[in-house]
């Protein structure tokens, strides 16, 4: 079964075409990115993945004024006589769409129909930057591939198993019932993929696995997983809460904003920009890319050193609190750009936790990892893994399962 995975953003469409033999067996036939849609410098980058592991790359610089044009060019590239991988789009059985927010309406991947589209539209206020672009991808795919099934896979779905004590805020209950104010969490597709892989690597049946997955990148989140089900996650109603991120505060005292408004006259829009785009690592030391922060720290920059210490300390607090919530912990998994590539962050985030049975082996932890790697010491009661995430494959897998 050929499944086209689409991640439609506000100005880009990321895609991968899979040949799925089963839910656990798939290979990439082609991948690429249409970017800067609506701009004069828009491009389409395309790769055909050869059976021998090699890649044939092509690119087009034709204007992409809208998502309709972008997806049409992607489909033409897939069927291109020279670089394509299908004779026609009729070979594509389904498109799996990443949708950021499904609210409480969706706890599993769902075949798209008009009612599903309407429900995704209803959740636009919860994800105003993402859901409209996701809907554009669905709309255009339905038009251009009328014979293919369309499946929506929601970033928030994995976290819908959280109990009320984890997802509710201590605010008037009417705000939850009338406005949907609650924790939803994000990065759910990544957390689900990594959790399944980690359970397998740790030798624990998934429905019995107690895990903490740490998706650490410019945006970051953790999830506490008990018996294969998410019971808590660090991101909240929005992607602002929890861990310190590249430009986002993570958890902080919200009354600071009232104080700033009274003292400086800062507006709502200015405060929004402050906590989402000017804070986090960038706010502390002027850099949001951890590679730059490390360089500055090594050069003696005290604020860069502070930013690193704050990041690791916040991570450690979440690891500890989720261990307490789980009661028993089989394994921890690091993933995403920072989790897979920054050995300092991994080591510092779990330092001095020997008394909890968590011991990272310095040698095993060294370097960057593109394959699952055990980094805990033999003496560690809790296994610690680096597990590279693959959200596109998880979307393809879930799409296959829905259609099967």
Describe the structure.
- The protein is α/β, with parallel strands linked by helices and 404 residues long.
- It folds into two domains: 153 residues, Nucleotidyltransferase, domain 5 (2-Layer Sandwich), CATH 3.30.420; 187 residues, Nucleotidyltransferase, domain 5, CATH 3.30.420.40.
- The protein has an eight-stranded mixed beta sheet, with helices on both faces. Strands 11-10-9-12-14-13 form a six-stranded mixed beta sheet, sandwiched between helices.
- Helix 10 packs across helix 11.
- The chain is globular and about 60 Å long.
- Predict the CATH topology of the largest domain: Nucleotidyltransferase, domain 5
In which range does the helix fraction lie?
Answer: 25-40%
Please give the count of helices: 15
Question: Helix/strand/pairing class, anyone?
Answer: alpha/beta
- Give the count of structural domains: 2
Reading off the top of the CATH hierarchy, the class of the largest domain is best stated as: Alpha Beta
Taking the sheet with the most strands, its summary is: 8 strands, mixed
Enzyme class: transferase
GO biological process, one term: acetate metabolic process
Cofactor: Mg(2+); Mn(2+)
Catalytic activity: acetate + ATP = acetyl phosphate + ADP
Write a brief structural summary.
Helices cover 37% and strands 22% of the residues. By secondary structure, the chain is an alpha/beta fold. It has two domains: 2-154, Nucleotidyltransferase, domain 5 (2-Layer Sandwich); 205-391, Nucleotidyltransferase, domain 5 (2-Layer Sandwich).
